[in-house]
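[Help] Beginner question about ligand-bound structures

Sorry if this is basic. My supervisor gave me a protein sequence and a SMILES string for magnesium ion and asked me to "get the holo structure". I don't really know what that means in practice or what format the answer should be in. Inputs are pasted below exactly as I got them.
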Amino acid sequence: MAIWCRVSSRTIANANHMRKFINPASGLSPALNRGRPLFSDGNRRHLDSLPRNRATRVWFQRFKSTLAEKQQDSFLSSDSDEDLQSLQFPGGKVSYTSEMNFISESSETRVPCYRVLDDDGELIPDSHFQQVSEEVAVKMYSKMVSLQIMDTIFYEAQRQGRISFYLTSAGEEAINIASAAALSEQDIILPQYREPGVLLWRGFTLQEFADQCFGNKADYGKGRQMPIHYGSKKHNFFTISSPIATQLPQAAGIAYSLKMDNKKACVVSYIGDGGTSEGDFHAGLNFAAVMEAPVIFFCRNNGWAISTNVSEQFRSDGIVVKGRAYGIRSIRVDGNDALAVYTAVSAAREMAVNEHRPILIEALTYRVGHHSTSDDSTKYRKLDEIVYWKNARNPVNRFRNWVQSNGWWSEQQETQLRNSVRKQLLEAIQVAEKAEKPPLSEMFRDVYDYPPSNLEEQEKHLRETISRHPSDYPSDIPV
Ligand SMILES: Cc1ncc(C[n+]2csc(CCOP(=O)(O)OP(=O)(O)O)c2C)c(N)n1
Ligand SMILES: [Mg+2]
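Answer (accepted):
No worries, everyone starts somewhere. Holo just means with the ligand present. The predicted complex, written as structure tokens, is below.
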């Protein structure tokens, strides 16, 4: 199957990027390796010779699907007796049955949840897991604590009216940090919004977090996004987008491009249980499966999508079972067990990168905090439930117990770490708060090369309104 794309005078500007997929001598695409001419007419033309002022059709060959080819072969070579009892159908043989059985809507038992540490952080005998060194374990634990402190202090800053919005990751620290620790820095992250720990792990500084939340001049988003919408090119972390699940089809496409470029890396896209009800979740999974793209879909099933409980969100056995429907290898893991998350993500990464396939991970966890500072979760869930997860199933305490039982952590280190992170963060907040804000004009820049007339008009209206009602607008934003 081939897909075609239109090259017009606008897209020809990307010819340099496209050129690397084309062998100029033959007009073939080496990366696309099927040996068919790139151009629909079969001429050995180079992109430079394409007319630049009118739309021109070119054909791109996509990567050969190994699975589809095997299925095609079995389809063509079937004539045995046994084959008469089955239907040769695209996708593989289907055996006939004279019994009418509807497939049950659920299996009798729920898919088990992989874990390594019990709730007290004791290693479960005979469990299979990937050992982590003292250095990595201590870094993991330290970053989990930093994330906790960051959440507490930014949350308080929002309550004091110093930032407009915040959203904590409380209860999901192990998912954040252990998944990040199992990846390579070349792996590309497409986050939902409750995964700032991945950035923290990769070295995004407390100052960078504070600058984004305060929307000052040092914020990479130039103050145009709500707090917590972090992004960092140098950390391979795509900017968070408010509409949920949009990142999944994008993740499939980026993973496919990594494969085309022969990169030993994968994409990791995070999503919440609520996000899986979006159409983009299904499009992303199906696209990745069919295109055999190296992407890990990491679903944090924390029980709630704002006030909607998972029992009202879907009737399937969670999310893990949806992988099979799309032909994706999947696992359910205890999201509050850092060692289990680390092991599952390490294994998923190996499979994604080496076998060019998507993997789905469903991590069972709990959102201990409110959905965001705009929510009061005690209005729709019981306090006992929150307290149980906060204390009895706390992922940070659980990992600490394991690290401590190895003799790698002490009470003194704990006190030192907490004091130091708290001090650094308070300083970062003071700096971020005092820093200049980006000028108003930045609100209208960076999307178009030349701003369209409607944006210019909006900017003009805004400036007129501010000059008529100056006291209604923040005085610290240069106009
Ligand atoms: C496309 C889209 N629909 C609805 C919303 C509103 N919204 C924001 S967060 C959220 C719930 C998401 O829940 P979940 O994916 O489980 O993530 P969690 O907050 O539990 O981490 C909703 C419905 C949105 N931002 N985007
Ligand atoms: Mg959720």
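A couple of things worth pointing out: Residues 2-61 form one domain. The longest strand covers residues 295-301. Feel free to follow up in the thread.
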